[in-house]
Prior knowledge:
Elements: H1 6-20, H2 25-44, H3 49-66
Amino acid sequence: MSRLGPMELIIILLIVVLLFGGRKIPEIAKGLGKGIREFKGAMNGENTDETKSLKKNENSEDSSSKT
């Protein structure tokens, strides 16, 4: 199985630009990057947004009960 060469990558990039347009590509890249970060975080066992908010609520309850 061969790797993608520079010419193939240029052709793929041109097809993506033609399909989505220049304005939509940054939005797609942003969403893709966010998805990859969330996936890697889940694979590494990092906290998700839900567990972070739960811990934040627990910490605020603990600090209010101390006073």
